[in-house]
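input
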Amino acid sequence: MSRILVVCTGNICRSPMAEGFLRAALVRRLGDGAPMVSSAGTSGWDGTGATPEAIRAASDLGVDIGAHLARHLDDAILDEADLVVCMTADHRDAIARSRPDVAARTFTLSELVDLLERSSTAGPIEARVAAVAAARNGTTPSRAGDVRDPLGEPLAGYREVAAELHELSDRLAAALVEAPA
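output
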């Protein structure tokens, strides 16, 4: 799998942090062979940088997102993505409604981590994602585990969200590339 897309609303808080954390976690495990990770927002504020609080919270955990520029999610961006990782069920469901052809490869971050950690499928990333998509097929996707939007909160709120994203991103990278438990 060569392209992972992380999606939130404005692409200025959660998704830039998750993009940075996931990229770093995958590079630690795969080096130059790590998949490309990017982000966009369902209401993306094109060309806007990440919020200062998001930059600081990510930096506190070792990731620099200072050069990030927001992008508005569109069909071309979705077409390029092999895996779409959303911050909330609302993001996932909106993508599935507008692009049913992308629904099978679209998950919330916490949903994907949970499904992969419970899966015994080994092999390349594509096989693991296909297996959990097939296992989810016909069931109502979970609405639990949304990552809250810290926009408008003080730095402490961003740090809480960053810590959650850091942990989930590390778990996702491990579940995508390491041998199942």
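quick obs: The two ends are 21 Å apart (CA to CA).
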